[in-house]
Amino acid sequence: MTGPAGKADWKAIRGDLLGRIQSGAWKPGDQIPREVELAEHYECTRSTVGRALRDLATAGFLDRKRKGGTTVSANPVRKAPLDVPIISEAIRKAGHDAGYHLLDAREGLPDGAVAAELGLRGDAPLLFIAALYTANGVPHQVEHRWLVPATVAGLSRGILNDMPADEWLLRNVPLTRAQIAIEATCPPPDVARALQTAPDTPTLLITRTSWRQARLIGMLRLYHAPGHRLTTGI
Amino acid sequence: MTGPAGKADWKAIRGDLLGRIQSGAWKPGDQIPREVELAEHYECTRSTVGRALRDLATAGFLDRKRKGGTTVSANPVRKAPLDVPIISEAIRKAGHDAGYHLLDAREGLPDGAVAAELGLRGDAPLLFIAALYTANGVPHQVEHRWLVPATVAGLSRGILNDMPADEWLLRNVPLTRAQIAIEATCPPPDVARALQTAPDTPTLLITRTSWRQARLIGMLRLYHAPGHRLTTGI
DNA sequence: TAGTGGTCTAGACCACAAA
DNA sequence: TTGTGGTCTAGACCACTAG
């Protein structure tokens, strides 16, 4: 119910509108005034209130339809932004010293699970990479990658010795689409060994399959050290 | 290098600009033309290219600074939107029959870990809720909630018998801020029993602490059935 | 068909940061 | 100081959709 306090400023207007929603003055399902009316109330143009309304709509607080007007979302499905970072960068940003060790890099046939996940028949060789990331010298994450050789042409073992695959890929084969799955699992024996944990320790596993346009780049399995938490917020 | 193909349309411009980034025509760190120049190139106004540029910047593809100009992000930290849904809704949306069973609801003192997580001293009683969600009759998720009684006044055991806490909270005490943590763990004995799994099965645990403005609402621990995956994409 | 949001224009002023 | 993006205005036309 705040009036046009200071001046017309789309962020202020957004805050005011959000306040009405979160305070319960406007309830889920309610129809809110039209843009023209709000513009009049806030003493600004329709463009300005429009921007505030658009922002609240993309954030999930409002539903907008032409002719149907703007309503308060009945079911505000909130989205928590989950970072998909360069691993070493993430470690450094957490204030730790980031280490990287290539454990394995070779061509080979993917096993059935990987081939199925990638939608391949399993008879085409992929580039397999295993690497360990450390934070302050302590095992932090282990990655298993299966990459389509034709798509990542130019990526050699020599490069991988010095540079994590994700950094090379970011610059040379940037992804345009990715599917991400997060689950809890027990690490395979070699991963457990690298992480220095017992093989039956619950481990957070992130699986990411990525494409560049229509071309498959490959798959990443990222095993986190025990106790590692993925955090975000709203 | 596409010209002003059809007409000035901010989505088309965004697509064209994104194409230049993803094709490698513009590389990370590169400075891109100023708004005025792009407007000239696309034969539209600065507002229109500005909208396309703003969109790409919020998506993480561009960095913009006044006077400094616009550059291609050197480190495009992509964000994957993670849904924070009403649990029953999510089960239904997956095409399953959603079931809800209240397992426990009582006032009690939180244990040390919960009190610490909530930043409480542990001498104030909280409302504890345990509930089981099923999908097609099969155990799907178990939630443990600790709620601050003063903040959720009106939430009774009678209500909780019929309605999951999250649905009541959504309508009556909508959160304005939340911290979310995702980790792998072994479920406590009572959770393992409810999920009908062995206690040493790796389980995906989502912990969410939520506030309404400055007031603490409470904490949720959501244990997922074995094999459950959290999925998202870019 | 009429009303609503979605978009674009042409111009202006302002805020911030680099030189 | 100066150049860049950030925002706002006043107006117009268009696209979708509810009635």
Mind explaining what this structure looks like?
Two copies of one chain form a homodimer. With 234 residues, chain A is an alpha+beta fold. Chain A folds into two domains: 10-74, Arc Repressor Mutant, subunit A; 78-224, Chorismate lyase-like (Chorismate lyase), CATH 3.40.1410.10. Helix content of chain A is 29%, strand content 35%. Chain A has helices at residues 10-22, 35-42, 46-58, 87-93, 112-118, 157-162, 165-172, 189-195; strands at 31-32, 62-65, 69-72, 78-84, 98-108, 126-135, 138-147, 177-185, 203-212, 215-224, 230-233. The longest helix of chain A is centred in the first third of the chain and has 13 residues, at 10-22. The radius of gyration of chain A is 24 Å and the shape is elongated. Mean pLDDT of chain A is 93; it is low at 1-6. At the A-B interface, β4, β8, β9 and β11 of A face β4, β8, β9 and β11 of B. β4 (78-84) of chain A pairs antiparallel with β4 (78-84) of chain B, so a sheet runs across the interface. The structure holds a DNA duplex (19 and 19 nucleotides).
What's the helical proportion of residues of chain A?
25-40%
Uncertain stretches of chain A? 1-6
Strand content of chain A: 25-35%
What is the CATH T-level topology of the largest domain in chain A?
A: Chorismate lyase
Quickly give the structural class of chain A: alpha+beta
How many domains, in number, for the residues of chain A? 2
Q: What is the terminal-to-terminal distance of chain A?
A: 25 Å
The order of strands across the largest sheet of chain A is 5-6-7-10-9-8
- Under the CATH scheme, the architecture of the largest domain in chain A is 3-Layer(aba) Sandwich
Number of strands of chain A: 11
**Sheet bearing the most strands of chain A, described?**
6 strands, antiparallel
Classified in CATH, the superfamily of the largest domain in chain A is Chorismate lyase-like
Radius of gyration of chain A using CA atoms only: 24 Å
**Cα shape of chain A:** elongated
SSE run of chain A:
HEHHEEEHEHEEHHEHEEE
CATH class of the largest domain in chain A: Alpha Beta
